[in-house]
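chain below, 238 aa
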Amino acid sequence: MLILTNDDGIDAPGLQTLIQAVNNNDAIHPPLIVAPQKEWSGCGHQVTTQHPIQISHRSSHAYAITGTPADCVRIALHHFLGISTQHSQLSQSHWVISGVNYGGNLGADIYISGTVAAAREAAFHGIPSMAISQYRKGNQPINWEYTQLLTQHVLTELLRQPPQPGSFWNVNLPYLTPNDPKPTIIFCQPCPCPLPVAYQQEGDSFSYIGDYGKRDRTPGSDVEICFSGQIAISQIFI
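prediction:
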């Protein structure tokens, strides 16, 4: 079974795009959707331990929860599927797919992203997983229909090659229009460079003004490949 989640919230267009991409694959059974009730972008691997998590039944296969993306994966695996950390013999029959995130998760982003954290949480439990993100260029809108086509292409390739145990796939789709050349999947390393660090100071307040698009583009890294119009896939070890 596929378990779908994200960090933009259960009603986000990226998750709906992922659901449609999965449903268009005849070889895949209906997925289990366990996603946050609200947006948790940038929450990293935060989990909820100090107060109850509420679950809202959206449909026969969809649940919204008040927790984080990592909480969603924990609840999906251990409550809905009954997989225990000590007895994960069923792990290879399941996948966790997180996304499609609104914005890239490249290089240093993997430590900040709730979308990536969901895939990492699955890997902790021995479940094959991937995080899929759609890079957005400036303020230009995302063509979700085209993102769906790219997502279907990625799923066809990756679902037949699970990541090595103790790792997960991190996928970044380039910003393209349907008239651009079809992108190629390139397996690569995440960029090791920091995000742009720039702040505007007003008195004792600092406002971040770093330009994501001007980050370092180390040759051969996921940033360089995605920014160049190709699909960047990195294997991330936990």
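The chain has a mean pLDDT of 93. Residues 141 and 175 are 10 Å apart (CA to CA).
thats it, cya
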